[in-house]
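Handout, section 3.2

Students often ask what a structure token actually looks like in practice. Rather than define it abstractly, here is a full record for Transcription factor ILI5. The first block is the sequence as you would receive it.
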Amino acid sequence: MSSRRSRITEEEINELISKLQSVLPEARRRGASRASASKLLKETCNYIKSLHREVDDLSDRLSDLMASMDTNSPQAEIVRSLLQS
């Protein structure tokens, strides 16, 4: 039994590129001007990397905040409840 690969159409690719362009901050700033697919994919990779760095930074800051709090304080309880949501 041979495995069949589903093929993606050019129309589907264009739709996906358009969706990417609508969510990337840099592409939105450009407005209606359309970037090449390769440039858009590079921007996507860079944006994802920047989001990872931001998550890491926020995680570090939260860890520092939690370490500096009294674990029984009302503030620590608020932070814990927010993290569990």
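Discussion prompt for tutorial groups: The chain has four helices and no strands. How would you have guessed this from the sequence alone?
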